Amino acid sequence: MKITFLGTGTSVGVPAIGCNCYTCRSTDPHDKRLRCSALVESDCTRLLIDVGPDFRQQMLAQPFRKIDAVLLTHIHYDHVGGLDDLRPFCQFGEINIYADQITSDGLMKTVPYCFAENRYPGVPAIQLHTLTPHEPIIVNEFTVTPFTVWHGKLPITAYRIEEQGGPTLVYITDMKTIDDAELQYISPPQPSLLVVNALRFGKEHYSHQLVPDAIDFVRRVEAPRTLLIHSCHDIGRHAEVNALLPHDIKLAYDGQVVEV
Description:
The protein has 260 residues and is α/β, with parallel strands linked by helices. It is 14% helix and 27% strand.
């Protein structure tokens, strides 16, 4: 199993439009963050986590091959705004989209033409499936178990992805809190890799955890290796932040490929 980070930024990306801060002025490509999305792949299966408004740009740098399933975390635009750009991948066949009830209902309002009974020629050939928390789905050799974290008062779908006979990945974005009962879907057994959001240092945010919160969470679940995503420009420059972080916790960056 490998994960490719297509985007690791927040809803406005980095650099932010109109901003001239220290991070946004950086020329280091590690400090250029598109909206959050990731590919999880084996030799024969490809899962896409979220399909934000930068999806077209992100996928131009990736091999063009079938997407077996799309796993959506929530209805916010920075996570679903690129749904229509799945069209080129539909030449491989209909794409299965998995989402919780709130997200499924929201998509019917934001892109209703994708699900019309008589679809306009050329719209994405996608099939929407509504997830039930804790009920696994099977996508070829991957077992995907959805569970719930909280983005303020909005439930977010997180995913535990297990490859048959192989490693386990847990992917969490936009989390502020998690109920104790949901921790069993993270560990034990501990995932080989934990991916979790960390907005910035400093001032508390009402619906996102900060870097110290993320570190506390990692220690709580005893993950052996963690990469941080969904970071804004306020977090600082990539190299400087990584120098401050523990050896087992680092910032992810756009284009990073990790063998899990």
